[in-house]
What we know:
single chain; Growth Hormone, Chain: A
Amino acid sequence: MLVYYSQVLGLSPQLAGLALGIGLVFDAVSDPLVGYLSDNTQSRLGRRHPYLYASVLPLALSYFLLWHPPASLQGDMNLFFFLVACNVALRVSFTLFLVPAYAFVAELTSNYEERTRLLTGFHAVLSVVSNGMSVAMYAIWLVPTSEYADGIMNAEGYQQAGLIGTLAIAAAILTFTIGLHRLIPRSRQHAIKQSVGPKQFYVQVRDVLRRRTTRAVIASGMLYWAGSGTYAALWVYIYSYFWEFTSAQISLIVVPMMLGGLFLPPIMSRIAHGREKKRLAIFGLLGASVVNVFPIAMRLLGFFPDNGTEALFYIMMGLAFFETVLYLVYDVNWRSMTADITEQMELETGRRNEGVISSAMTFASKCAYALGTMIAGAMLALIAFPTETAVGEVPADTLFNLGLVYGPLVLVIWLGACYAITGYNISREYHSQTVARLEEG
C-alpha cells in the first residue's frame, strides 16, 4: 500500500505513512470495546458471531476502495484524506472480525499445547495464502509491460489484485464464521452475566491490563509488530530498489516463504513439545532478526554478491525460508501465550474475558503495525527517497542510506520485543495448576 500510494500515485511517503498510521487512534478505542462487547453479548448467535457477520461488508468494501481511489482526486491532501478515511474504516471493520475470531481459541480448548497446535495450523494457512498472493502479485499483476518497464509502477495491477483480494476476504470470513456455528452453544455458556455499561467496560479492561503478564505480552507484541510494519512497508523497496530483483525473481523468492508455512506444523510439533512458549518465542524472533539483518549488513560492508548475480538470488531464496519459519515460531507462541491468560483471569475474577484479552493482542499488532508503516514513511522522507522513480534510477548513496537506516532500526526494535516478553510469567506448570483448580471449583 505504501509503495502504491507513494511510487505509483505520487503521494509523499511521509503522508502515506502517516495516513496508514492514523488508524491506531481508532484502534485504541475500537479493539477493547469490541472485545468487551463480544464477551458480554447474549444473543441467539452467541457472543462472537454477531460481530463476525457484521464485519464482512464494511471490511470488503473499505479494502476495495483502498486500491481504487477515484480518478477525480487531485493533490496530495485529497489523496491523503481519502487514504485516512478508507484505512480507518478498514481497521475498525477488521476489529469486528479479528477480536472475536482469536477469542475462539481460548474457548475451543484450555490445553497448553493444543492452543499452540490450533494457532500453528491457522498461521500455516495464513502464511501460504498471503505469500501465495505475493507470488501472484509479481507473477501476474506487476509484471513489466510495453507501457511499464518496471512492473511495480503498474497501477492497474494493484487494482486488479485489490478486486481479487476483496472477494477472497469476504469468502474467507464467511467460511470461517459459518464453520464455527457449532461453537455457538459453548459461546452462550461462557457469556458474562453482568450489565453492559461504561463502568463494567472500565473494570474488565482494567483487570486485564493491570496484570504484569498481560503488559509483557502487549509490550512485546507492539515492538514486534512495529518492526514488522516497518519491514513489510519497506520490503518492496529493499527487494526492488536495494537488491534490484525483477518482478519475476521476487515472485520466485516468495515461494520459499510459502513453503515455510507448509513446513511450520511439523517443525512446531517437534520443537514445541515439552518446551515453554516464552523461550520458543524469543528463539524465533532472535533467529529471524539475525537472518533479516545479515545480508544487508554484509552488503553495506562489501562482503555480499553483487546485484544481478545468481549467487545473490539463491542466497536470498534460502534465507527467505528460514526467516519466514522463525517469524511464525514467534507469532504462534506469542498468540498462544495470550490465550493462556484466560484461565488466570477466570481464577482471579470469575470472568472469562477472552474478547478483552484478544483485543489487547489485536490492538498491539494492528496499532504497532501501523506505527511501523509511519516509521517506514518517515525513514524514506529522512533519506530523501524519490517518489515515482523506477528501479535503477535511485542514486547509489540513497540506496546505501536505505540499508544503513533499515537494518539497525528493525534489529533494535525486535531485540526490544525479546526483552519485553521476559516479563511473561505463565509457565506450563502454572497453567496446568490453574486449569486444575478451575475444574475442582
